[in-house]
């Protein structure tokens, strides 16, 4: 039997998953910055994506789960409503970073000879990042208006758009229409890249190391896009199937979104052998250093006989 919905339990789950998401994406961000294989436009977009994921997970963990546990009435204040706005800001940053990552992968797979001319310079990448976060800022700015701002429903543990005309516009156009349109474009770009890869595989095997690396990065981006699409479908479509079951509604809205951003960071680590090697190397160095310190501490006490040294 499923227990009755409890906001305290939902808060604990949100904080736990959110904290895991923050740690996973910080680890991915650190590894990307230290990895020369990601010293290109796609690597910069991966960093932007990790920052957006950290923002979403941290906001859910602290401003949603933490505030609900400690001071739930704060959600109804003006500044309490900024939590939904902050989550939406980072969500938009993640969404449009996904879009440009899909454009990047589609270009390198469909037009490899032109890729360096388009994405080779650092200026283009900087402009892309400026555009991504400018759009995120513009999209989230209307939520400063009280009638537009999101409210958090503690009893259902999810966010709702404001009522009235402003809330209607932000929910159906700024959020829903923009998100689904962008996701459809991402899907079309990914499909064009996938079909091109199938054609190339039939004509000639992928023997070049650089080519295999670019393909691997595509499947990383494709997996991350699939997580984004699944989260969006869950929040808007699956959640509408049952509004009465609060656990189901929480799982298909807040939790599904949080899981998607958490898994995003894990996907970067799983798909990159270089990142896994760098992380395992760091962990090995830490383990050796810790073991050495412990041995030094034990032997310095003089507890053991001298012939043990």
From TrEMBL:
GO cellular component annotations of the record: membrane
SUPFAM superfamilies xref list: Family A G protein-coupled receptor-like
Subcellular location(s) per record: Membrane
Main localization of the protein described in the UniProt heading: membrane
Keyword terms of this UniProt record: Membrane, Transmembrane, Transmembrane helix
Transmembrane listed as a keyword: yes
Ranges for domain G-protein coupled receptors family 1 profile: 24-185
Signal peptide residues on this chain, from the entry's feature table: none
Segments traversing the membrane: 12-32, 52-74, 86-103, 115-136, 176-197, 217-241, 247-272
KW Cell wall biogenesis/degradation (keyword) present: no
PANTHER family: G-PROTEIN COUPLED RECEPTORS FAMILY 1 PROFILE DOMAIN-CONTAINING PROTEIN, SERPENTINE RECEPTOR, CLASS X
Name of the protein this chain belongs to: G-protein coupled receptors family 1 profile domain-containing protein
């Amino acid at each position: 039997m499923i227990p009755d919905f409890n906001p305290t339990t939902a808060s604990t789950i949100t904080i736990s998953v959110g904290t895991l998401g923050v740690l996973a994406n910080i680890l991915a961000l650190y590894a990307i910055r230290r990895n020369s294989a990601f010293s290109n436009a796609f690597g910069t977009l991966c960093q932007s994506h990790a920052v957006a994921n950290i923002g979403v997970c941290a906001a859910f963990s602290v401003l949603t789960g933490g505030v609900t546990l400690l001071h739930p009435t704060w959600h109804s204040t003006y500044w309490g409503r900024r939590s939904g706005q902050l989550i939406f800001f980072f969500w938009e940053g993640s969404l449009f970073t996904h879009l440009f990552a899909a454009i990047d992968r589609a270009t390198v797979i469909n037009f490899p000879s032109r890729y360096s001319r388009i994405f080779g310079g650092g200026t283009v990448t900087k402009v892309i990042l400026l555009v991504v976060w400018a759009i995120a800022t513009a999209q989230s700015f209307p939520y400063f208006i009280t009638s537009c701002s999101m409210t958090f429903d503690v009893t259902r543990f999810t966010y709702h758009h404001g009522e009235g005309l402003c809330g209607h516009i932000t929910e159906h156009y700024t959020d829903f229409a923009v998100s689904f349109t962008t996701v459809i474009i991402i899907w079309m770009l990914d499909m064009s890249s996938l079909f091109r890869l199938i054609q190339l595989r039939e004509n000639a095997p992928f023997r070049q190391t650089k080519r295999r690396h670019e393909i691997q990065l595509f499947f990383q981006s494709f997996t991350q896009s699939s997580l984004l699409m699944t989260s969006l479908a869950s929040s808007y479509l699956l959640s509408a199937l049952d509004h009465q079951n609060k656990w189901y509604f929480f799982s298909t809205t807040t939790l599904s979104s949080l899981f998607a951003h958490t898994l995003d960071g894990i996907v970067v680590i799983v798909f990159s052998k270089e990142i896994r090697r760098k992380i395992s190397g760091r962990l090995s160095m830490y383990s050796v250093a810790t073991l050495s310190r412990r041995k030094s501490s034990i032997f310095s006490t003089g507890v053991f006989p001298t012939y043990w040294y």
